[in-house]
User: Which sequence fits this backbone?
């Protein structure tokens, strides 16, 4: 495979890995972790950068290798593909979450435990949908034909402008859902630090 095409496929695959779980991750960071909008956005930017720098490629290679290991072809039963991709994504989230917490300086064992548990649940919820969008985006962008049974045959023959438009609309939809989360959930109130006056302070200032 030419290096340019491999790079383009990596960008395509990683974009789906970022977009699909984005609304759920934003909701968990706002509702469970109590983050502000900006803190959540920064967290998503950091993780997105790591995915584009190589974690996304490692995830996708691992998914394909795991499918091969368990004998699940791209033309196989959709149920088997769905179960595999659901469990694989959950396992991947479970594996990478504690090191990321430690890397950003967290040492709260209980916080890491519950955070890992929540993110593993999000991985399980996102895994099947993520794999669907990954295979569909590859087809729509002209990298690899999607052989899954639910993919409409008419889309294989659709003009490239229509395919590209569907990809752009899908990304915009996930961003729109994430934006709704940020607008619907208020930031936590800022912590106010009060400085008490000394008990025997003089009322007269010289």
Assistant:
């Amino acid at each position: 495979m030419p290096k340019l095409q491999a790079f383009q496929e990596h960008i395509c695959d990683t974009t789906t890995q970022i977009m699909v779980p984005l609304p759920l991750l934003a909701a968990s960071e706002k509702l469970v972790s109590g983050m502000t909008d900006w803190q959540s956005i920064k967290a998503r930017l950091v993780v997105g950068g790591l995915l584009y720098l190589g974690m996304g490629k490692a995830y996708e290679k691992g998914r394909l290798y795991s499918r091969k290991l368990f004998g699940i072809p791209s033309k196989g039963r959709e149920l088997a593909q769905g179960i595999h991709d659901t469990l694989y994504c959950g396992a991947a989230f479970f594996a990478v979450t504690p090191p990321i917490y430690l890397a950003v300086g967290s040492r709260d064992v209980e916080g890491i435990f519950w955070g890992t548990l929540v993110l593993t649940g999000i991985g399980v919820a996102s895994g099947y949908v993520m794999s669907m969008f990954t295979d569909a985006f590859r087809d729509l962008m002209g990298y690899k034909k999607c052989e899954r049974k639910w993919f409409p045959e008419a889309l294989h023959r659709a003009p490239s402008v229509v395919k590209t438009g569907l990809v752009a609309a899908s990304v915009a939809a996930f961003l729109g859902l994430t934006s709704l989360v940020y607008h619907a959930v208020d930031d936590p109130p800022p912590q106010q630090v009060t400085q008490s006056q000394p008990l025997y302070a003089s009322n007269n200032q010289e």
Q: What stands out?
A: The chain has one domain: 16-182.
